[in-house]
Amino acid sequence: MGASSLSPTSRPRVWNLVRQRFKDSLHDESDLEICMETFSLDILLSQLKSVAKAHRNENFLLARLSQFHPSLVYLNDFMTVLVLSFALDGKTGALLWGGICLLLSLLAPLEEIFSEVRTMLEELIAALPGIHPFEDNIILDDKLETAMVDLYIELALFCARAISFIRVRRQHLLPIRQSWPQLSREFQQGLKRVQMLSQQVERETQRAATTAALKWNNEMVTLFQSLSTGHKHAGPELPCFHIPLTLNDRFYIREGLLDQISVTLNPKAGRSGPRTLALYGIGGAGKTQAALQYAYRAREQYDAVLWISADSTVKMAQDYMAVARRLGVLPAAQDTQDAIGAMAKMKSWLADTTCSWLLIFDNADNLEVLEYGWPSGVVGSILITTRDFNASLHPASQGLHVNVFDNKMGTKALQRLLGLSYDYQSNAPLIAELNKQLGGLPLALNQISNYIRQQKMGLKDFLILYRNNQEKLHKRRPTAFDYQHTIGTVWELALGKLTGNAAVLQRLLAFLDPEAIDEATLCNAASTLSKQTSLTDSSLMFLADPIDFEDAKAELLRAALIDRDPRTKSISVHRLIQQATLSGLSPVDQARYFDLCCQLLCQAFPSSWTDQEYVWVYHAWKACEKCLRHVMFLAERFAQVEEELKCLDTFIELLLRCSWYLYEAEYYEESINLLQVCLQALERKGDTNSSRYAQARNVMGLVQVDLRENSKALQNLKIALEIRGKILPPTDWGIGVSISNVGFAYTEQGDLTQAMNYLQRSLDCLLRMGKPNEAEAMYTSVPDVRDLTDEQLLRENLPRYASGMQLLSMIRQAQGRLDEALGFASKVLQFRRQKFGSRFKTCDSLCHVAKLMLLTKKSMAALQLLDECISVASSLPKAEGYLALAYFRKYKIYRAEGHEYAADCLRDAIRAKEIAAERLGSDSDSTLADDDEAAYTQLVAWLLW
């Protein structure tokens, strides 16, 4: 065992500081003296046995101590190494041994908590580094001692904080269990720090061992050279092209990337300074293949092109030895396996030679390993392939991000990989869809195209097979597939190394939409959750701590498991990495992380219309938009976790909020999809008589009213009304709204008698509730917007004000006051364009204003608006009614002018009308003539609120 390089005179000051930190963490200063009495494992065991005998649960305590004994022995080995290696006082361990002893003694009467704290201590001890590296003759320097001491401090301070936690609650007679999440959070933070420090110790140990080995080898080389008889082997054999890999003919050449590599690395006359470049990106992005392609292309520009695998120190040293022999730096006749010595000789040759050389370090994901093989005084060109983007900062001077293919390039690459037998027009959309499913990952495109070609499968059949068997196909290695990894294994090692908060974050991201995950949304939601007393799972708390969150992200970024856009402060993750993450989780864990994501999104998603209060979320659409894609993604994942999901409440609340926002924003199809998932979940749960079920039916009905599907709408709205009538008081707000909604549906259907009956019931309900103003507003259906100026209207954030003004415009039209009608309608159109963009309400206003323009003899302006409506409606699902109406009104204008375009417009109107009528079924009248405007106005809502 080596000796420490530090002077012993500086140690007392360091250990006094450690002791003071321990003392400051205690609630009762006298506890320090109690701890100092226990300075060894033997004393600890003796005292704990005495404590056990003094309690009624002696057998329980002795059994738990027996189970704890192996961990204590492991800890004793660590302490022995610490004390002996750095020549410390034997009583140095008192803070830790005494802290454990006092903590367990305080908890002896509380069996359950005693067991949980013992488990915490076992986990902390298990995270310590193994002691075997210290048994070698290595140089124990100040870096290694600092790392070891920091580990000791972290363990001791956890004990001190836990002792203080128990003391405070006993002093104030507070229940320990109620405050348990606080200690649990401190433990998780402490465990994370211990794990990080252990990794640091292992790195410092490896570095110290390598330094010692290099020093010994250099001494031996010098010794042998001094004893040499003067015989020297021949000089280096140049040119030398040592590349152990062959070019993959199926590699899709990225000319732009290769050009960038050439500009950075190619040797030029008169050029000085380092030429070092890191290619970084996720596993499977094609970094190695790009480096290989460049090596073959540029071989004539270098005297030596050398390839080194940088996966580990051992492999790197072995490759250096092979290169040294191939180049002639190490005589081929010399029978030696001294890889470390060969690496040292090669690094010296690279630093001293005047020839041009290219050195490629492949798979340099651990930059500390790369550091051992990095030549000093670089005078050649070095290319690195790595997942760690930090390599572009150091040791490389520049970096290029090797990203996955975009849609266009990925589709083109996949087409080339599939070959001519798949190159026909009908396959083009299928190839584009397959590329989308594979996320443009070059490894995936190569592997899957190999499989398709070998199986001679049609693309349509394969897509069906792939959707149902992703995990199996990802792990399946096609014949003659020359890449070391498959989709199923390329991230296996990186994911397996994740622990603590980084692992939690990676698993959370697997349940969110992979693009543009807003960091602030996650952190703010976690911060809100952390303040709730009902919180039972503390694993999200790191999101509320800026430092912990940054640390978790950094670990994932280094492993290239995520990407980050600093401009938008958002995270993205490849969809295949998501799939690999999910594959590594048990069904129970999948359900757990699904629920955690639901909790976060439910905190982030603004509250919508509920049975308790009338709340619109127009003002919070931006916040809704940030969460929308993630809620949609969760809805798609629901089938995977449904059986293991213990509680559906949060998920259902999230679906209801999101579906209401989608209704407001006129994303009707998406709203229906979420509501169907919501209703299915409630029905499978047997929860069909609750306010949530009524709410889902109510929103579904409102969406269908806007889509003019009145029969379906009435069915859903009546179910909602019936449920609310059973579970709510007769004067409840929810009943009044439901009655009103049924009345609106009857109005759209044209059954005005029924509409008046329901609307009158709604008014009665509001009056009985003591809300006459609301009753009057509902009676007139026109909010108080008559006196608003254009600017005031546009500042209002309630689209129903604008809908009220639309109704007022229709009233003025019926009264023959066309100029006033046009003025109101134009305001509404301006508002809806700004608020909704290219959506249904904008189409509604365009058609209405165009009609008023026509009535006021402004046919050219009307045509422009109708063309805009056609453009918008053509891109909207289920907007055929507006398309038909716009074409028909164009037909009327052209017919009046005797224009030849009239026939074309009528034909287009009829075609769109037939599509809409097929969807509406009995809600449309097929007996109306094709040249009757009523045949087209019946296809759209009378008024969109």
TrEMBL record:
<feature type="domain" description="DUF7779">
    <location>
        <begin position="494"/>
        <end position="587"/>
    </location>
</feature>
<dbReference type="InterPro" id="IPR011990">
    <property type="entry name" value="TPR-like_helical_dom_sf"/>
</dbReference>
<dbReference type="InterPro" id="IPR027417">
    <property type="entry name" value="P-loop_NTPase"/>
</dbReference>
<dbReference type="GO" id="GO:0043531">
    <property type="term" value="F:ADP binding"/>
</dbReference>
<feature type="domain" description="NB-ARC">
    <location>
        <begin position="258"/>
        <end position="407"/>
    </location>
</feature>
<dbReference type="InterPro" id="IPR002182">
    <property type="entry name" value="NB-ARC"/>
</dbReference>
<dbReference type="InterPro" id="IPR056681">
    <property type="entry name" value="DUF7779"/>
</dbReference>
<dbReference type="InterPro" id="IPR019734">
    <property type="entry name" value="TPR_rpt"/>
</dbReference>
<dbReference type="Pfam" id="PF25000">
    <property type="entry name" value="DUF7779"/>
</dbReference>
<protein>
    <submittedName>
        <fullName>Uncharacterized protein</fullName>
    </submittedName>
</protein>
<dbReference type="Pfam" id="PF00931">
    <property type="entry name" value="NB-ARC"/>
</dbReference>
